[in-house]
Amino acid sequence: MKRVKAKWTACFLAAVMVITMMPLSVFAADDPAVLTVDGVNALETTSGEGWSYQNDTSTLTLDGYDGGPIHADGLSLNVVLAENSVNTITSDVSQNRSALGSNEFSYSANHIAVYGEGDGSASLKINGDLQGIYAQGNVTVQNCVLTVDIVSTEASGQEVADGSSPTYPFIGIRAGGGLFIEDATLNITTLRGTENQKIHVGIAAATDKAEIVNCTLNINAASVAVQSNNEPMRLENCVMNIRGGDTAAVMNQFSTIDLIGCTGSIASDSIGVTSQRSDGKITLQDCELSVEAGLYGIMALSDDFYMESSQLNFPSAVSYGIYAGNKAEIVKESVVNGQNCTFACRIPATSGCVVDDTSAVHGIQIFNSNQNVTAMGTVSLNTNYADTLGKNLSGRAFTVAPGAELTVQEGAVFDISSAASTAIQGDFINYGTFKLDGASVQNTGVITNYNIVEETEGTALQNNGEIYSICTAAFAVKGNDITLMHSEQPPIIENIISATCTQDGRQEIVVYCGNCKTQLSRNTQVLTKIGHDWGEPVWSWSDDGKTATVTLTCKNDNSHVEIQEATVTSEVKKIATCTEAGVTTYTATIEIAGESYTSTQDVTDIPATGHVETETVNAKEATCTAEGYTGDKVCKVCGEVVEAGEAIAKTAHTFQEGKCTVCEAADPDYVPDSDIPKTGDSSNMTVWIAVILMASAGMTATIVYSRKKKLGR
What we know:
The chain is mainly β and 713 residues long. Helix content is 9%, strand content 46%.
């Protein structure tokens, strides 16, 4: 069926090429030269608004042109876009079949070249409904921005349909000879504005090479985006955003296609890049391309596909990523990401697909005359992909190649039970449902099962490799046993013996499987003894403060009691005085388990000293006018009066000549001597001697009395 589909596709493409490229006559007759610009004969009137023509060089310069079609037949025409100019041509079939170029289909040496002056920003925009640029010979576009919008209308569609222009497809740029585009930006759209199903092409070369170099290509065509018919096509250093609708994005009918140093995206509802004949080798070199296609990504229908130092991505579903009628070579660090392809490579020939050690193909391959299927690189099967691939394996040999990784996604069902044989040599990972006939499956790689494996009843696959499966989904095998994968639960603690102050404890750390409850591990853990945690010390002192003991009780276990004799030191806190005893502070200290404990106690144990040193203060001798005082006995330390003094009686007056010699008090007994005249001189020796003797006796008596009194104390 697939081969029939490929042949049908080839026939359809051939028909497209015939309609597009075949002439009514091989070469045109020598027709007279015609050049009109918006209806003005430029061969006679050489300038107009926004344009001028130089006859000797056949050069038409556009500088701000905004007008109708430019018709050129019977001559070659150079179109120069003035620097930084913006130019517009608007045409429809009522004016001219081509917006710029020939109005008659033929092949000749009449060429059209469009050049932009300056930095490449000069632009030409063409709006039409049939053909944008058409030359019977070659078309050259350089150093400019060229925009062509072709949208078929009822009128243009009718002209094609009724046979008046049967060889005119709807096309952006058409060259009867070759096509050369360099250093340009092309924005080409060729779309169906009506329901007609005629061919719509972006750019095309009929009888000579198509070379596109250093360009940015934005092309969207309803049928084919880029086309060459008889000679090689080369796209080099191009940034591509190319879409071909119902036929192909890039197509060559009779020759090769070379993509060199190109990047970007290629898309088509049918085929991305295709060559249709035996000399139609397709080459990718130094490219990084993304290809989206309905049927084939790359199709070398009857020749080879060669890929070097390139990356080819298939971001969406494609039936066949790479199809090569003869062989495919993928070398020099190339990568094909064909995970979204039903088959990343389909090589009908026995030569198959050659992938060197530096390169990788990620996807499913089907090749050789036996139509065997191989998974290579990294492949992930979603629900649709798994179903499609499983159905394609019926009666075929299926291999997961060494180094490959094939994954069945969650929710997908991958049924290979109808495959002729299955060899798993790489990694097979199942998150979905994997159905197989164990009798036809051999594993030498690694199978990892996270969900369901269903084997045909009574069968068991041959396991010479490794198989890992969740514990609840084991399946029958021969050879090496399955290694069960458990769902480890958080560890739990069992058999606890608590540690005490003085002894280690222990507990067991156990891990169970959450699915099958199997014990996966059990480890004993030592619980280090916790040591004493002493409470507040209780002190016991002797009355004199010279000895003390302390009692400590453990907070962890009140049966653990420690009693120790403390070391006691003393220090005088308060010195004894004459009247008060002194105080001693006693400090008790112990050390337990590296921690010190202290307590203090004050004892009044130093006797008072008494009044040891005294002195007499406030003593006063008696006089004839005042009593005296013996003085108070006072402690020299505290100032306390130890013994109070006594009064001393007044002394007698000492009278002389009727007066006291001390206080001059009058002597009441004084009788003046009237017989002796007062001379102021005492010559009575007897009287004076008597007075002296009496005074001496009084003093002696006073002294003796004072001493006796002192001794009597």
